[in-house]
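To whoever picks this up:

The nightly regression suite flagged Metal-sulfur cluster assembly factor as changed. Nothing in the input moved, so I suspect the structure step. Input below, exactly as stored in the fixture:
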Amino acid sequence: MDQDMKDSILGALENVIDPELGIDIVNLGLVYDVDMNDEGVAMVTMTLTSMGCPMGPMIIDQIRTALFELPEVKDVDVNIVWNPPWSKDNMTRYAKMALGVR
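Regenerated output under the current build:
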C-alpha cells in the first residue's frame, strides 16, 4: 500500500468521532495501524479508550461507513487490540489541547 492510500484511509478515519470524547479516533491516537491488501480489504488495527467501552461497536460501524466512501475499499476489517494499552500520551497535540490534557 502506498503512502497516498494510507493518507486517504487515515483522512477518512478522521471523520470517525469518539462519542464520549468528541474527538476523532486518529487524533486520539486510537488507530495504531492501517493497511490494505491487493483485494481492497482495508485493515485497521486500533484500540479503545477502555476495555469496557460501550461505544466499540458504534465506532466500528462508523469506521466501516467512513472507509466505504473510498472507491478503492471493497471490505473493512477492524482489529481491536489491547496491547499496547491506550494512554493519553497517544493523543496528538490538537486532541490534548481540545480536551485540556497536559
